[in-house]
Design brief:
This protein is α+β, with helices and mostly antiparallel strands. The chain has 11 helices and 7 strands. It is rod-shaped.
Length: 453
């Protein structure tokens, strides 16, 4: 059969207060993340907190530690007697050339060190290359940018990158020391022979300093990354908690809306049918009309009680809600009797042993109720057959009428079929609804007992 909803079968339905962080980011390159609604304790250590809040001041101090001694050495080198009277091959004073080159390298490294947080790899590569530039006037300070860059790799990039950088710089620097020691002007030579002890001592000292910088950087970085991971995880749990609360609220609203639709649509349809019957019999059979209106009142009171029960779950804590059980398989006979009282020519059959599962019984009740309500609404006066078959494997439901079928315009919004499909999906069931070839309308539902999706 073509899927459809009897109520719309003539047209296809369409289907915690904000808490803030107690500290700011350390730098744009290494933010501690946006914790959102997550409350965080104040980090220990006032001085460290101050440093985290003022990364530019820290970077300025690092640059000054390198720039000041470099400036002193550059100025002192320009006045060195070893440069006096010497000129380059193109006639410039030797002191001018070396001073300009040393100053350019020093200024470039100062600018580069300000990027140690954002671009630690670039800083390390350039600083390592600059350390091999032979500038006698700045000898002794060329290693500082390399140490700062290695620290930055561990603190602001990754531990793996820091150790790779350490290995590369240590190997290149050791090779440079060995090659420089072989030169005739090396201080590591003792006369014509290479002083092996001085060479090994120089290489060892250099590697130790590089290792200390790398260890400090990775220690700080690992602590920061671990803390950030904990904050991110906690923030994610908060978001998941809020999302689950919203989903649960939406599901509850959808459930209540479906129940309200089933209850009100059924009751109003029955009341309309009873009222029309009473109006037709009011002159010729006033006693029967009075009895019919009494049934309208009884149906209205029952509907009101059902609505109150459904809305009771929305009451504030402490208010007493109606806790009567939902209708189930045992109420199917009463449901059929109510439709017969409304004038429906209904034949109801039930076979097998009804289930004790209250949830499954409610699903069966609501599906039968919705199908009969739409038959009453769209096929008034038609003969209707409703059958429910209970078995160990599940429940089969079929509601058939001999009304006009697809000839009536839709009066609903398509919630009926959607609600039946959602209820059937709870038990891995299927819903088929549509016009019959011989005329009329049929709804067929198969539910798997006890097998929730």
């Amino acid at each position: 059969m073509v899927g459809g909803f009897p109520a719309a079968r003539r047209t296809r339905p369409q289907g915690a207060g904000r808490l803030t962080r107690s500290s700011t980011h350390e730098s744009p390159a290494t933010p501690l993340g946006d914790a959102g609604d997550l409350a965080l304790p104040k980090p220990p250590g006032g001085f460290r907190s101050w440093l985290r809040r003022h990364p530019r001041i820290v970077d300025g101090v690092v640059v000054a530690v390198y720039a000041l001694p470099s400036a002193v050495l550059v100025i002192g080198g320009a006045a060195s007697e070893s440069y006096q009277g010497r000129t380059t091959s193109w006639g410039l004073p030797y002191a001018w050339w070396w001073t300009a080159l040393a100053a350019a390298v020093a200024v470039g490294l100062c600018v580069l060190l300000t990027q140690r947080r954002r671009r630690p790899v670039l800083v390390l590569v350039v600083a390592a290359i600059a350390s091999f530039v032979p500038l006698p006037s700045t000898a002794g300070t060329e290693a500082l940018p390399v140490l700062v860059a290695l620290y930055g790799m561990g603190a602001f990039h990754s531990s793996r990158g820091a150790w790779i950088g350490f290995g590369a710089v240590a190997a290149a620097s050791s090779t440079g020391v060995m090659l420089g020691a072989a030169g005739p002007l090396s201080v590591l030579r003792n006369g014509d022979a290479l002083d092996l002890g001085l060479t090994v001592s120089a290489v060892t000292s250099m590697v130790i300093f590089l290792l200390i910088a790398t260890l400090m950087g990775t220690s700080v970085g690992n602590r920061r990354r671990y803390t950030q991971a904990l904050i991110d995880r906690a923030a994610q749990l908060v978001r998941e908690r809020d999302a689950q609360a919203r989903i649960a609220g939406a599901q509850e609203r959808s459930r209540i809306a479906g129940e309200m639709h089933d209850v009100i649509a059924h009751s109003v349809s029955v009341m309309i049918a009873l009222a029309e019957g009473a109006a037709a019999a009011s002159r010729s059979r006033p006693e029967q009309a009075a009895e019919t209106m009494a049934q309208v009142a009884e149906t209205g009171r029952g509907t009101l009680a059902e609505v109150r029960r459904l809305l009771g779950v929305l009451q504030e804590d402490g208010e007493q809600a109606d806790r009567r059980p939902q209708p189930g398989a045992a109420e199917l006979d009463g449901l059929a009797a109510g439709f017969r009282a409304a004038g429906m020519r209904l034949e109801y059959r039930s076979s097998g042993e009804p289930t004790d599962d209250q949830s499954l019984g409610l699903v069966v009740y609501r599906i039968v109720q919705e199908s009969l309500t739409n038959a009453l609404r769209y096929a008034p006066g038609a003969a209707v057959t409703a059958s429910v078959h209970w078995s160990d494997y599940g429940v089969g439901i079929e509601v058939v009428d001999d009304g006009p079928g697809a000839g009536q315009p839709s009066q609903g919004a398509g919630r009926g079929l959607l609600g039946m499909r959602e209820r059937a999906a709870l038990y891995a069931g299927t819903v088929e609804a549509g016009p019959r070839p011989e005329g009329g309308w049929a709804v067929s539902v198969m539910l798997r007992g006890g097998a929730t999706a």
